Amino acid sequence: MANQIHNINVIAKETLPSPKTIKAILPLTQSARETVINSRNALVSILDRKDKRLIVVVGPCSIHDIDAAQDYAGRLKDLAGDLSDVFHILMRVYFEKPRTTVGWKGLINDPNIDDTFQIDKGVHMARSLLIHLNEIGLPVATEALDPIMPQYLGDLISWTAIGARTAESQTHREIASGLSTPVGFKNGTDGSLSVAINAIKSAQNSHHFLGLNDLGQTTVYRTKGNRYSHVVLRGGPKPNYDEQNIALCEKKLKEAGLPPRIMIDCSHGNSQRFTNEKLVKSFKDFNLQPTVAHKSIDQVLDYNHSIIGFMLESNIEEGNQQIPEDLSDLKYGVSLTDACMNWETTETLLSEAAERLRSR
């Protein structure tokens, strides 16, 4: 008789190798380890305001092409070295994409971009790329989405984001409390600060929760809390990177007993272009990211010490593309998800911003 109680909506199961097995195949090298440790230490110094540089998280909205990602990383590594006196630059390397309804869920879930969902392959590809990036001396930032993935990839990550859709999730707040990286919580998609502030307060406390260990066994974790969690302003129905919204965020953080650490996401709700004065309709315009970044720099130059960095969505080529029926028609270096600035715009923006900051 068919099972009529358990897993009635499950049509297949596949066992994934344990984190220990994957790490044995793709071990953390000494040079990669040094990059991770040095970057995490730099981030802590910046968040403690001992290091006056700004954090810059920049890169593709999502990774779908390993060759293009390595190409982009090589360019960014050179630029990061040139600007290291004013910026601590990390490459945005997102392998998992939250979907409002359905859609391509990222390299780990569907590495072949064909709905075959070869997650084992995706995990190997992701870890291999992270090792390469850290070995060339380029630290990495990512988003924690699936609660299992940090056991597979966390030793190669320097900074972690919790997205607007998941910042309210108790599971993600608990995970953040145990992550070894600083964690940025984004404000809610409705623009509210309370979600991010409550998430920070939660993540800074100790938690007990279930997870997987390196052997793939269900484990009860107890954390001490992550004191380097902070807020990321990503806009909402309206942008929230202006002086008034920054001041409001500072006020709310102070009222919550939290240090005023604010990162500005120059994309998403902060890169909206309104179609009329009544703000009836708006749409995200990736071309506005330099404007947001420079206005953020204006505030830093005006002695705002709460702004600790910004995020940018950038790729080799600008814009985005739909997944074609024939994958050979994919355009090289063009995002499959959110539209991005191209490399030339990114390089110009960061170089100009660095010159402005050096004037201090």
Describe the structure.
This protein has 360 residues and is α/β, with parallel strands linked by helices. Helices cover 34% and strands 16% of the residues. It has helices at 19-25, 30-47, 66-82, 119-135, 150-153, 170-178, 194-203, 243-255, 289-301, 343-358; strands at 54-59, 87-92, 140-143, 159-162, 183-186, 208-212, 218-222, 229-233, 262-265, 272-274, 282-284, 307-313. β4, α6 (170-178) and β5 form a beta-alpha-beta unit. The N and C termini lie far apart (76 Å).
Q: What secondary-structure arrangement, pairings included, does this model have?
A:
Layout: H1 19-25, H2 30-47, E1 54-59, H3 66-82, E2 87-92, H4 119-135, E3 140-143, H5 150-153, E4 159-162, H6 170-178, E5 183-186, H7 194-203, E6 208-212, E7 218-222, E8 229-233, H8 243-255, E9 262-265, E10 272-274, E11 282-284, H9 289-301, E12 307-313, H10 343-358
Parallel strand pairs: 1-2, 1-12, 2-3, 3-4, 4-5, 5-8, 8-9, 9-12
Antiparallel strand pairs: 6-7, 10-11
Helix pairs in contact: 2-4, 3-4, 6-7, 9-10
